[in-house]
TrEMBL record:
PROSITE patterns: EF_HAND_1 (PS00018), EF_HAND_2 (PS50222). SUPFAM superfamilies: EF-hand (SSF47473). Keywords: Calcium, Metal-binding, Repeat. The keyword Cytoplasm does not apply. Residues 39-65 form the EF-hand domain. This is Parvalbumin. In muscle, parvalbumin is thought to be involved in relaxation after contraction. It binds two calcium ions. Signal peptide: none annotated. Belongs to the parvalbumin family.
Length: 65
């Protein structure tokens, strides 16, 4: 499974572009731009689990890269 099986690569890139500068991350805007806001809670959890490689329950900088 790839993250692009669930979210559009273009939407992911646009969401990441919006928060490149320090202190510009806005979770609600990120969820909208990436397409996460259109998903059910279960689908968002699946995406989180996919990104959380070490299964810590947190997303660290390396996992987000």
């Amino acid at each position: 499974m790839s993250i692009t099986d669930v979210l559009s690569a273009d939407d992911i890139a646009a969401a990441l572009q919006e928060c490149q500068d320090p202190d510009t991350f806005e979770p609600q805007k990120f969820f909208q731009t990436s397409g996460l806001s259109k998903m059910s809670a279960s689908q968002v959890k699946d995406v989180f689990r996919f990104i959380d490689n070490d299964q810590s329950g947190y997303l660290d900088e390396e996992e987000l890269k």
